[in-house]
């Protein structure tokens, strides 16, 4: 393996979400590099169906922090990026291409394409940020009040915010959050359901120790317990109506 590969892997394997930042600003030079890295992510048929809104204005960050469930680091981070799936620009492209309005299908496949495109782009930016010594955390909380967020940022039809991202120089060094045993997620040739429960039980042990260390002994719950509490709850049930309002026909 080439040295650069090792360096990239080192960065990937050292990832942890950062939720406390130094006040040092993140300059435009850095922002442009992050977005260029994002733009080089693979993109379905070259559609590049994403836009990213950089927010540094303290008042806007304060509003976004409140709309995200009072996540203070949204306000405190020097740079907040809102990653949006964007099918709007493609309709403009269609018009440029043939000289008359072209309406996209706006269906589930296009919704998925745009959502995947923005996620891949954002993760490229996240890795680039970490390679540059910055820290980051995704903020799915911006979907809590997605209508208000869209209004605040002036999002047109066919553009929707998928998640935000706090970026700044880390002022903490959290523990690495352990992941499932590799065997739980890697299947050879065919999906193997025979040992999932064993892998999960093994993970629960590791996870409990992590939670206990992270919380100074206060939290000792297992991952499987956390998932059991989480998965039955239908979160953010407003999203379908919102997406329809933004112009999608999910069917
Ligand atoms: C799409 C997405 C949304 C997330 N939303 C939030 C969020 O709103 N607030 C937060 O503190 N962390 C959020 N996270 C961070 C996850 O909690 C974190 O990545 C996960 O616990 C694993 O920890 P690690 O990133 O430190 O390895 C989000 C992560 C993803 C991928």
Describe the protein.
This protein is an alpha+beta fold. It has two domains: 3-174 and 234-245, 3-Layer(aba) Sandwich (NADH Oxidase); 182-220, no CATH class. Helices cover 47% and strands 12% of the residues. The chain contains eleven helices and four strands. The chain has helices at 3-13, 28-39, 58-67, 72-76, 88-98, 108-131, 146-153, 182-185, 196-214, 223-230, 239-245; strands spanning 50-55, 79-86, 135-139, 159-168. Strands 1-2-4-3 form a four-stranded antiparallel sheet, sandwiched between helices. The N and C termini lie far apart (45 Å). Bound molecules: flavin mononucleotide. Flavin mononucleotide (FMN) is lined by residues 15-17, 19, 71, 137-141, 163, 177.
Bound molecules: flavin mononucleotide
For the record, the count of structural domains works out to 2
Q: Write down the overall geometry.
A: globular
N- and C-termini, Cα separation: 45 Å
Number of helices: 11
Question: What does the secondary structure layout of this molecule look like, with pairings?
Answer:
Blueprint: H1 3-13, H2 28-39, E1 50-55, H3 58-67, H4 72-76, E2 79-86, H5 88-98, H6 108-131, E3 135-139, H7 146-153, E4 159-168, H8 182-185, H9 196-214, H10 223-230, H11 239-245
Antiparallel strand pairs: 1-2, 2-4, 3-4
Helix pairs in contact: 2-6
The structure holds flavin mononucleotide.
Residues 15-17, 19, 71, 137-141, 163, 177 line the site of flavin mononucleotide (FMN).
Descriptors:
11 helices; alpha+beta; binds flavin mononucleotide; 251 residues; four-stranded antiparallel β-sheet; 4 strands; NADH Oxidase
